[in-house]
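Incident review: delayed structure delivery

Summary: a single-chain prediction request sat in the queue longer than the usual turnaround. Root cause was a stuck worker, restarted by the on-call engineer. No data loss occurred. The affected request and its eventual output are reproduced below so the record is complete for anyone auditing the incident later.

Affected input:
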Amino acid sequence: MPAYGFAHLRDRHHHSDVLEYLARIQATLDPFGGRFVIHGPPAEVLEGTWSGGMVLIEFPDLAEARAWYDSPAYQDILRLRTDHVEGDVILIEGVGPGYDPTERANKLRAEASGR
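Output delivered after worker restart:
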């Protein structure tokens, strides 16, 4: 099942370290099958508020996503970003083909009723 690395980055600055990070990140993703799905375009906010940019990287599975984040190659460049950009980063498993939110609703209803 695919997994994603999601970042909500705020107070972005185009410091030279951040530009180096950008130039080097793809080489850290390649061994783990990582690919950018979203990389920072302005979002069209339809509800609520949103500041900053968004990054979404897809991986074949959660194990590959974790292995990428923990890899020496990525850890070597991580501070180039974190020293200059505030944000939140998570890894999360996606849903597979045929996902049906109705089934999830039914499961949650059953859990709520104590069944």
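Verification: The chain is about 40% helix and 25% strand.
Action items: add queue-age alerting; document worker restart procedure.
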